[in-house]
């Protein structure tokens, strides 16, 4: 009863997902699964050139699909569904990093994204919020990845630098790029039936 009263007041703006919402989330998740195949190859090349620091520069691209869906759809649960679908698709396609890592990463991303946007009540979608969200997605998954992939052998200094670079990558290649792509698509008219609007900051 309390939650219903709060929902009526707009504190918890829960809205049902439309068919278009689901289709968009599935499309972005599928596109990410395909992109991940090429990103794994890029990671190998970067690792040979600059080790763990170099590979950390593209971290934001792995997370962008879920944050972009959140920015466009702007409904609670968007991150959970999008990242969840992404993990399932990667599992079926085969992941260079292992199926377990796909689901653990998705779980980390969805929890953090939903927490960030819930803090702003799913109403504030300006640049600062998107940059913050992009950077915030990194640390928890990095904690698990460090143990799953043996990052601990890098040493404290490299671990800290890798984390910093990944956070910056999340801010730029996930947060900033999600907003730029979302705004560009909104201005093109392709997203008329979604919550994102051309030039809308909030």
> What about the largest sheet?
none
Strand content: under 5%
Rg from Cα: 17 Å
- As a percent range, the share of helical residues equals over 70%
User: What's the pLDDT, averaged over the residues?
Assistant: 89
* Number of distinct helices: 8
Number of domains: 1
Spatial shape: globular
What low-confidence regions span 5 or more consecutive residues with pLDDT below 50?
1-9
Q: Terminal Cα separation, in Å?
A: 29 Å
Instruction: Find the structural class using helix and strand composition.
Output: mainly alpha
Counting DSSP E segments of at least 2 residues, the number of strands comes to 0
Please provide the ordered H/E string of secondary-structure elements. Answer: HHHHHHHH
């Amino acid at each position: 009863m309390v939650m219903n009263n709060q929902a009526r007041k707009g504190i918890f703006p829960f809205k049902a997902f439309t068919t278009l919402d689901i289709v968009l989330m599935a499309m972005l998740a599928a596109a990410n699964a395909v992109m991940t195949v090429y990103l794994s190859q890029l990671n190998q090349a970067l690792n040979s050139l600059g080790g763990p620091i170099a590979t950390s520069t593209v971290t934001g691209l792995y997370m962008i699909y879920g944050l972009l869906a959140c920015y466009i759809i702007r409904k609670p649960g968007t991150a959970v569904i999008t990242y969840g679908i992404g993990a399932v698709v990667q599992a079926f396609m085969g992941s260079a990093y292992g199926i377990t890592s796909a689901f653990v990463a998705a779980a980390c991303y969805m929890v953090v994204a939903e927490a960030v946007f819930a803090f702003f009540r799913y109403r504030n979608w300006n640049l600062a919020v998107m940059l913050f969200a992009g950077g915030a997605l990194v640390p928890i998954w990095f904690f698990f990845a460090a143990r799953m992939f043996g990052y601990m052998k890098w040493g404290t200094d490299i671990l800290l630098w890798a984390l910093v670079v990944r956070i910056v990558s999340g801010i730029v290649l996930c947060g900033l790029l999600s907003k730029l792509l979302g705004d560009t698509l909104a201005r093109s008219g392709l997203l008329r039936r979604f919550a994102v609007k051309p030039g809308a900051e909030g």
